[in-house]
């Protein structure tokens, strides 16, 4: 348990460093374009600079915006990509943990009838190509089922702090989740100030 909590904390720290770098690079680039072409229409230096999100940027970025403006009113969004990732060989689910090493997905075919097919996470597939089809996956290859709702929500809240537009992530819950537990997850999402909250309870959707 302690080892798991330490691993989750480390994941949040790494994710924060990645997202902070992405945010900083995006804003610096937009400032540089504004220096060349001007700020976006409707840019108000006072109002924009006083927004909570901008006040959370580095002093360097805030000074750059004050001096040159910014070309884009919004720069970053995190889209729901669990299903879309299938089109990219199931290589990534965005900020979603891997849903499952292997799973059965169902889509509606051209005739309107459901069609089921097996999908395998790309990292899992590559690992087993190297180590054998029956190789035991290393501890680092976790899935959404390995994280509590609170852990998933806290990761989402951290990422949201670096995103100035929309953000989406589905919280995966076990089939045994009660109405009270779902209510608690929704309350935690609200307390964390999340922009949105979506859940999937195992077995709640079928073909």
Which value, in Å, is the CA radius of gyration?
20 Å
Task: Provide the low-confidence segments as ranges.
Answer: none
Largest sheet: 2 strands, antiparallel
Mean pLDDT: 89
**How many alpha or pi helices?**
7
* N-to-C series of helices and strands: HHHHEEHHEHE
Percent range for helical residues? 40-55%
Q: Largest beta sheet: what is the strand line-up?
A: 1-2
Outline: globular
The total beta strand count reads 4
> From the helix content, strand content and strand pairing, which structural class follows?
mainly alpha
Cα distance spanning the termini: 36 Å
How many independent structural domains?
2
**Beta-strand share of residues:** 5-15%
Summarize the structure.
The protein is mainly alpha-helical and 207 residues long.
Structural key phrases:
207 residues, mainly alpha, 2 domains, two-stranded antiparallel sheet, two-stranded parallel sheet, 7 helices, 4 strands
Description:
The protein is mainly alpha-helical. The protein has two domains: 2-68, no CATH class; 84-201, no CATH class. It has seven helices and four strands; from the N terminus they run H-H-H-H-E-E-H-H-E-H-E. It has helices at residues 2-37, 45-49, 52-55, 59-68, 122-131, 149-160, 179-191; strands spanning 102-108, 114-120, 170-173, 198-201. The strands form two sheets. It has a two-stranded antiparallel ribbon with strand order 1-2. Strands 3-4 form a two-stranded parallel sheet. A hairpin with a 5-residue loop joins strand 1 and strand 2 (114-120). Helix 1 runs parallel beside helix 4 (59-68) and helix 1 (2-37) packs parallel to helix 6. It is globular. It starts with a helix and ends in a 6-residue tail after the last strand. The model has no long low-confidence stretch (mean pLDDT 89).
């Amino acid at each position: 348990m302690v080892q798991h909590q330490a691993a989750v904390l480390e994941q949040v720290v790494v994710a924060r460093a990645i997202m902070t770098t992405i945010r900083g690079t995006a804003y610096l680039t937009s400032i540089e374009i504004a220096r060349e072409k001007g700020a976006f229409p409707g840019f108000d230096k006072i109002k924009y600079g006083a927004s909570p999100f901008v006040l959370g940027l580095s002093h360097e970025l805030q000074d750059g915006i004050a001096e040159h403006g910014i070309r884009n009113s919004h720069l970053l969004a995190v889209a729901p990509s669990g299903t879309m990732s299938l089109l990219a060989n199931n290589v990534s689910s965005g900020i979603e943990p891997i849903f499952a090493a292997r799973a059965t997905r169902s889509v509606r075919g051209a005739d309107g009838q459901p069609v089921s097919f097996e999908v395998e996470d790309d990292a899992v597939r590559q690992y087993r190509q190297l180590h054998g089809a029956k190789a035991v996956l290393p501890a680092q290859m976790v899935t959404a089922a390995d994280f509590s709702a609170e852990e998933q929500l806290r990761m989402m809240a951290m990422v949201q702090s670096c995103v100035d537009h929309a953000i989406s992530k589905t919280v995966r819950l076990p089939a045994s989740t009660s109405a009270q537990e779902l209510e608690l997850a929704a309350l935690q999402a609200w307390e964390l100030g999340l922009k949105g909250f979506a859940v999937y309870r195992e077995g709640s959707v079928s073909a």
